[in-house]
Amino acid sequence: MFTDRLYKTAKPIWEASYHHPFVQGIGNGTLDIDKFRFFMEQDYLYLIEYCRLFALGSLKAHNLQTMTVFADLLHSTLKVEMDLHRQYAERIGIEKEKLEQVQPAATTVAYTSYMLNVSQRGSLAELVAAVLPCTWSYYEIGTRLHEIPGASEHEFYGEWVKMYASTEFGELAKWLKDLMNELAEGKREEELKWLEDIFVTTSKYEYMFWEMSERKEMWPIEINS
Ligand SMILES: Cc1ncc(C[n+]2csc(CCO)c2C)c(N)n1
């Protein structure tokens, strides 16, 4: 299966993400809330751009069934996943107005621009290779953290762990994996390698997103106005 190959190649990056202090901090409840606030603000911007990828998935789909699932995903991300962010924001003291005025950090811009660029240039296969690490690795992280005693009951991070460990996210990851395998069928090695490169790149960006949040890193240079 093509996704087994992708998983094997990206495994060291995914392991580094799981063991990243930010992710471990969510799991054992010791993460500094300021870092989580930064992450949530940037993730909200990330999700807005991610929704555009689902819209693009619907545009590039080869049949009505795939077109419908992407359209549903677009709607549920805007509603369900982003709602969780909006609720969290309120609980951790980010005003609703502020959430929509946050400036994107360098890594947020780089990650979302990369995904949109490869997906716009390519076919549905490129798009799925770009978005797959995000959904699949979050489900993997969510289910692993869920096994840590107390992680899903934590007053701030519990909801986050429960959401990403949920069967809905598991089903979504499976649907995207099946689609990736279907689209990879019959492709030449050169094309498969290109899809693998995309998958590895967005896996690295996933790692960078944790690292950015841990450091609350915006841009290496700012204009004081
Ligand atoms: C940096 C970053 N990477 C992945 C996700 C998880 N995620 C984003 S969209 C989506 C699928 C549909 O809702 C999933 C699982 C995130 N929130 N932030």
Automatic annotation (TrEMBL):
Reaction it catalyzes: 4-amino-5-aminomethyl-2-methylpyrimidine + H2O = 4-amino-5-hydroxymethyl-2-methylpyrimidine + NH4(+); thiamine + H2O = 5-(2-hydroxyethyl)-4-methylthiazole + 4-amino-5-hydroxymethyl-2-methylpyrimidine + H(+)
Q: What is its EC number?
A: 3.5.99.2
Q: In which pathway does it act?
A: Cofactor biosynthesis; thiamine diphosphate biosynthesis
BP GO annotations: thiamine biosynthetic process; thiamine diphosphate biosynthetic process
The record places domain Thiaminase-2/PQQC at 8-215
- Transmembrane residues, as ranges? none
Which EC class is the enzyme in? hydrolase
Checking CDD domains in the record gives:
TenA_C_BhTenA-like
The answer to whether keyword Ribonucleoprotein applies is no
**What's the superkingdom here?**
Bacteria
Q: Which GO terms describe its cellular component?
A: cytosol
* Keyword tags: Hydrolase, Thiamine biosynthesis
Task: Show the GO MF annotations.
Answer: thiaminase activity
Q: Name one Pfam family in it.
A: TENA_THI-4
Its biological function? Catalyzes an amino-pyrimidine hydrolysis reaction at the C5' of the pyrimidine moiety of thiamine compounds, a reaction that is part of a thiamine salvage pathway.
Q: What does the annotation say about its assembly with partners?
A: Homotetramer.
Q: Spell out the PANTHER family in the cross-references.
A: BIFUNCTIONAL TH2 PROTEIN, SI:CH1073-67J19.1-RELATED
Family to which this protein belongs = Belongs to the TenA family.
Designated name of the protein? Aminopyrimidine aminohydrolase
Tell me which species this is from. Aeribacillus pallidus
Its lineage opens with: Bacteria, Bacillati, Bacillota, Bacilli, Bacillales
